Amino acid sequence: MSRSTNLASFELRSQLREIFAQTLQSASIEHAFAKHVHCERGVLRICEDLYDLNSFSRIFVVSIGKAGHTLVEALQKRVGDRLEGIVAAPVDPQPQLRGFRYFRGGHPLPNAESVRAADAILKSLRAQTASSLVIFLISGGGSAIAEKPMDEEISLDDLVATYRVLVHSGAPIAEINAIRKHVSAVKGGRMAQAAAPAQQVSLLISDVPDSTPDALASGPTMADSTTAEQCYAIAARYGMAFPPPVAELFQRRALEETPKSDDPAFLRSRWWTLLSSATAVEAAAEAARQRGFQVTIDNSCDDWDYQPAADHLLRRLRELREKHPRVCLISGGEVTVKVSNGGVGGRNQQFALACVEKIAGQNIAVLSAGTDGIDGNSEAAGAVADGDTLQRAQALGLDVQAHLAGFNADPFFAALQDAIVTGPTGNNLRDLRILLAD
What is the structure's pLDDT at 246? Predict the structure, then answer.
């Protein structure tokens, strides 16, 4: 590979990193609040709704998910110190806000703090009255971060084992969350039930498909569009082997149905999506356009297995390059990886690794990364690969197929210094795959 080709590959890799960094900044929670949330003279405006805060006896905030701290800080910045509530997030707060209790829940698997958080939330919500305003701040990861089994016979170990089965099943997130809702005391609208008859408003930072907002954090404040019957079918389809107390519920078809849209809990409830995968995709598209690329968006491989997703997007990129000399293809959402005996990595690095041999020697670069800054069990958000990656890997004695088979993509990209490490971003808008050809 010539020096000029190496230089071109380096430039594409650099541009991909710049586009991703600019996207994280443009699609930030602070930007969303600046646009959609204002408070003046005691009147809080959230999108099209107005709330006279002085008319409520109590304003209680529940913030759960990976963006839990970022969201409550953005809200307090606008409303002031009249707020109180509970924050459940996967990291410790910096700093803690007065009037709030904090829980460090587990992710992607729940922990003891997840259960304590759920107990505290339910107890506080049940204490609200019709004169209370409850503001829910919901972001991705909330499913595990605040969790309590519906059936008291299900222990924490059983709960963790159930989540592990779901996470490794290869099922799309909406189907995983359908099951989570039906075994949980806080999901599928049950937080809204606990808070009724208070006035409720939910601000959503969505990491689920735009068509299924009630899948976000397993929909704790929204009417559930899924049913117990669907859960039985999903478990059978993916051969899910749950621990005995959960398996028994499925065998007896004894899952308790979640509240639907006609439940009285939703009569005084409102929901607003402030940020979603579409926000991140458009921000990435604008960043690429600013760098002179002809941009196309293709989200069709959302929830596909990573291998056919890589084939599809690379085929589309090559078709686009036949029409334009400098192209960018952007794909939002998440690919799936069914892990067996996995190493260190996640779906984003696995996707990027699957592209390495397919783009070898070509002036193509691929980035796949999570907007939350976390990819699977690694410390990276994702990775970048280009036409030069295979040659550089072989020079270091790295075997692409061995790392793919071992679901061990993170050490591969770390050795090449092509892992993308941002740390937790305090946001979560699903994943981005950005492909460039020049």
Answer: 98
Report pTM: 0.86
For residues 312 and 402, membership in a common domain is answered with yes
Best CA proximity match to 207, nearest among 143, 292, 126: 143
Under a CB-based contact definition with an 8 Å cutoff, are residues 197 and 268 in contact? yes
Within a domain: 396: yes
CA distance 38 to 75: 9
Please name which of 166, 137, 172 lies closest in space to residue 250, comparing C-alpha atoms: 166
157: left (phi over 0), alpha (psi -120 to 50) or beta: alpha
Q: Are residues 72 and 90 in the same domain?
A: yes
Residue 253 and residue 307 in one domain: no
Which parts of 99-182 fold into alpha helices (H)?
112-126, 142-145, 156-167, 173-182
DSSP state, 396?
Answer: T
Instruction: Determine the residue type at 411.
Output: P
Portion of the chain with pLDDT greater than 90, in percent = 88
- Containing 390, the helix (H) or strand (E) segment is helix 389-395
Query: Which residues are bridge partners to 46 per DSSP?
Result: 37, 49
Q: pLDDT for 317-327, tens place per residue?
A: 999 999 999 99
Quote the Cα angle for 405-406-407, to 5°: 95
- 33 residue type, one letter: F
Q: Residue 131 and residue 8: Cα distance in Å, rounded?
A: 62
Considering the chain, what percentage of its residues have pLDDT values greater than 70?
98
Q: What is the mean pLDDT of residues 309-337?
A: 96
